[in-house]
Amino acid sequence: MGVGKSTVGQLLAERLGVGYRDTDEDIVAGQGRTIADIFVDEGEAAFRALEKETVHRALAEHDGVLALGGGAILDADTRGLLAGQRVVYLSMDVEEAVRRTGLNAARPLLAVNPRRQWRELMEARRPLYEEVATVVVATDGRTPEEVTRAALDALELKEA
């Protein structure tokens, strides 16, 4: 959350001369409401099922840069589909998360005690991110352009 996946994803797509797609945007467009509203109205389990379906469809249909929501890797089937793909895990620490997002209430999983919840989420998710990642790129204190360059270098990809 707030790591810059959308911004960096778009920059990567531009630099590589490929399309960009964000599964969170797909969900919002398909449902006609925000992710926070889906969480409130239907709960996390319903959202995760929708997210899984959306991610699997996007992986099958899209050949360019694909940005996944932070919880997409919670599903074992999704992690299996990511095996063999080039996956960039953009990492950051809690202080950077606070600076970037303020850990505000628009993040449904961080509504109560956001710092503690962010740490708990990351402790649970970090091993899953690392499991699917081809490369890990730290974003702390870096501009989106610097993160994009680091991702391209780590993946040994050339700009188009």
Question: How would you summarize the topology of this molecule?
Answer:
Blueprint: H1 5-16, E1 20-22, H2 23-31, H3 35-42, H4 44-61, E2 65-67, H5 76-82, E3 88-91, H6 94-101, H7 114-132, E4 135-138, H8 144-155
Parallel strand pairs: 1-2, 3-4
Helix pairs in contact: 1-8, 2-4, 3-4, 4-5
Q: Describe it for me?
A:
The structure is a single chain. It is built from eight helices and four strands, in the order H-E-H-H-H-E-H-E-H-H-E-H. The protein is mainly alpha-helical. Strands 1-2 form a two-stranded parallel ribbon. A two-stranded parallel ribbon has the order 3-4. The chain is globular, with a radius of gyration of 15 Å. 26% of the residues are buried. The model has no long low-confidence stretch (mean pLDDT 88).
Stretches where pLDDT is under 50 for at least 5 consecutive residues are none
Please list the strands of the largest sheet in the order they lie side by side.
Answer: 1-2
Q: Name the structural class.
A: mainly alpha
Termini separation: 29 Å
Helix content: 55-70%
Main sheet: strands, sense, barrel: 2 strands, parallel
Q: What's the number of helices?
A: 8
Averaged pLDDT: 88
Radius of gyration: 15 Å
Count of individual beta strands: 4
Beta content comes to 5-15%
Assembly category: single chain
Q: SSE string, helix = H, strand = E? A: HEHHHEHEHHEH
What form results from the Cα inertia axes?
globular
